[in-house]
TrEMBL record:
It comes from the Bacteria. The keyword Transcription regulation applies. This is HTH marR-type domain-containing protein. PANTHER family: TRANSCRIPTIONAL REGULATOR, MARR, TRANSCRIPTIONAL REPRESSOR OF EMRAB OPERON. The lineage of its organism: Bacteria, Pseudomonadati, Pseudomonadota, Betaproteobacteria, Neisseriales. PROSITE patterns: HTH_MARR_2. Keywords: DNA-binding, Transcription, Transcription regulation. SMART domains: HTH_MARR. It comes from Snodgrassella alvi. Residues 21-162 form the HTH marR-type domain.
Length: 164
C-alpha cells in the first residue's frame, strides 16, 4: 500500500500502555491508528499526483462536486455541505476554482442573492486528464481487498460514521 507498518514497535508500545493504563482499550487505539495510516497513505499519494496539475485534494474534490451536479453548476453552500466544509473554506475553494479558470461565478437566475459556480471547459478538461491518475491511486490502495471485504469495510465505516 505504500507504507510500512511498524507493527512490532506499535504493538510493544500498546502493550506497555495496556499495563500502565488498564482502562485503555488498546484494540481501539490500534484500529484508530490503522485508519489514520490508511487515510494518510491515500491522502499523500493523491496529493503527489494532484500537485503535478496544480491541484490540492480539496480543490480536486470541489471540481468533482461541481462536475457531478446537473449542468455542472453548484451553489457554494451546496459545495460546503457536500465536502463537509465551513462556508469560509467553501468560498476559498470557489475563489481558487475561478482564479484558475476552472469555474465561473454568476448570479443565480432565480435568486439574485445567490451565486452559482459553473464548471468551465478548462475545468472539465482537467477532470478528464487527472481522473485516470486518481483512479489508479484508489485502485492500487484498495486492491488488497476482495469485493466482499471492500463491501464489508464500507458498511462498517458507514456504521461508525452514522453512530458518531
Amino acid at each position: 500500500m505504500g507504507f510500512s507498518l511498524p507493527a512490532a514497535e506499535l504493538e510493544a508500545t500498546l502493550g506497555v500502555l495496556a499495563v500502565k493504563m488498564p482502562s485503555m482499550n488498546v484494540q481501539l487505539v490500534m484500529l484508530s491508528r490503522l485508519v489514520r495510516l490508511v487515510h494518510a497513505t491515500i491522502h499523500n499519494q493523491l496529493n503527489e499526483r494532484l500537485h503535478k496539475h496544480h491541484l490540492s485534494e480539496s480543490l480536486w474534490h470541489a471540481l468533482l462536486a461541481v462536475y457531478a451536479r446537473p449542468n455542472h453548476e453548484i451553489l457554494p453552500s451546496e459545495l460546503s455541505n457536500i465536502l463537509n466544509l465551513t462556508r469560509t473554506s467553501a468560498t476559498r475553494l470557489s475563489d481558487d476554482l475561478v482564479v484558475n479558470g476552472w469555474a465561473t461565478r454568476s448570479t443565480h437566475p432565480l435568486d439574485r442573492r445567490k451565486i452559482t459556480l459553473k464548471l468551465t471547459k478548462a475545468g472539465e478538461d482537467l477532470i478528464q486528464r487527472v481522473s485516470p491518475e486518481t483512479n489508479e491511486v484508489h485502485r492500487r490502495v484498495w486492491s488488497a481487498l476482495s469485493e466482499p471485504e471492500y463491501e464489508q469495510l464500507q458498511q462498517l465505516l458507514t456504521k461508525l460514521l452514522t453512530a458518531a
